[in-house]
Amino acid sequence: MSRPAIGGLRERNDLTLLATVLVWGVNFAVLKVALADLHPFVVNSLRFTVSVLVLGGAYVAGRRGSRGLLQPIRAGGWQVVALGVLGYWCFPVAFIVGMDATTAGNAALIMASAPLWTAMVSQFTGLERLGGRAWAGLLVAVVGTAVVVLGGTDISLGGETLFGNAVVLLAAVLWGAYTALNRPALDRVSPLALTFFGLLVALPLLHALAVPYYGGVAWGAIEPLVWGAVVFAGALGTGIAIVWWNSSVRAVGPSTTGVYGNAVPVVALGSGALLLGEPVGAVQVLGTVLIVGGVLVVRRSKPAMAEEYDECRTC
């Protein structure tokens, strides 16, 4: 593969990751609309149902005229099932429970550690070998995220929020591990198939948690805005955006992909300023500069195995 082709592919991957960051940044505000009227477990079950419908339709349409709709299960086997439980049941349940027991500022700060967990899992499992420059860029991005969050939100890591903080930390570890452990499965299964079948595995478990709360939902009184939030969060936030994320993991590796997650609070900050009139100060601007700088350093410091990913990538 020629260098220009690789460069062009990496540029397209950057655009895809930026689109993912944009969706996830806006998704924080969107989810607040749904959570104001519905129990967190109900929101999870509804938005992931939307995700399965959207990605299932895309998967079937993409394989029209070909055989073997279940081929990814045969190819990926237990990995597809395990990753589905890890990424689409364990992580969202921990995240929602933690968010409900702590502040948004605490959650954003703690979730900023996810790229570090991705890099650590990748390093310890031999999936990637990061050099000193990449680690430095990753730490700069994490510090920048902390600056953004601390500059605009009251942070309390103890007292009444201690339980919630601990559960959100667990969620950050789970998402970091999911991002890293995806890589081997993506050698045999496409990002769309891996995401769709993973969601399909997790969906009954999510509904099982939500069943006790369905009786308290006034379904006919749910406003269109709430349904719109659920559809947006499901179709994009936990649907298409995760396919983009998994595509990037296959293209450039877990650690390079993971560091882009540090930019999500920046988008959330900007959307809050534009949509809600929330102020943006000099501290947040400084944090944004650090995040962008850290991401650029990691992007230019390819992990040792990333070259193999460029050469082995298949559709």
Overview of this structure, please?
The protein has 315 residues and is mainly alpha-helical. It has helices spanning 3-35, 40-62, 71-76, 78-100, 104-111, 114-124, 132-152, 162-185, 191-214, 224-252, 254-259, 264-276, 282-300, 306-312. Helix 2 packs antiparallel against helix 9 (191-214), helix 2 (40-62) packs across helix 10 (224-252) and helix 9 (191-214) packs antiparallel against helix 10 (224-252).
Low-confidence stretches: 305-315
Number of domains: 1
- End-to-end distance: 15 Å
Rg for CA atoms: 19 Å
Counting DSSP E segments of at least 2 residues, the number of strands comes to 0
Query: Into which percent range does the helicity of residues fall?
Result: over 70%
Summarize the structure.
With 315 residues, the protein is mostly helical. It is built from 14 helices and no strands.
What's the topology here?
Layout: H1 3-35, H2 40-62, H3 71-76, H4 78-100, H5 104-111, H6 114-124, H7 132-152, H8 162-185, H9 191-214, H10 224-252, H11 254-259, H12 264-276, H13 282-300, H14 306-312
Helix pairs in contact: 1-10, 1-12, 2-4, 2-9, 2-10, 4-8, 4-9, 5-7, 5-8, 6-8, 7-13, 9-10
Question: Which tags fit this structure?
Answer:
78% helix, mainly alpha
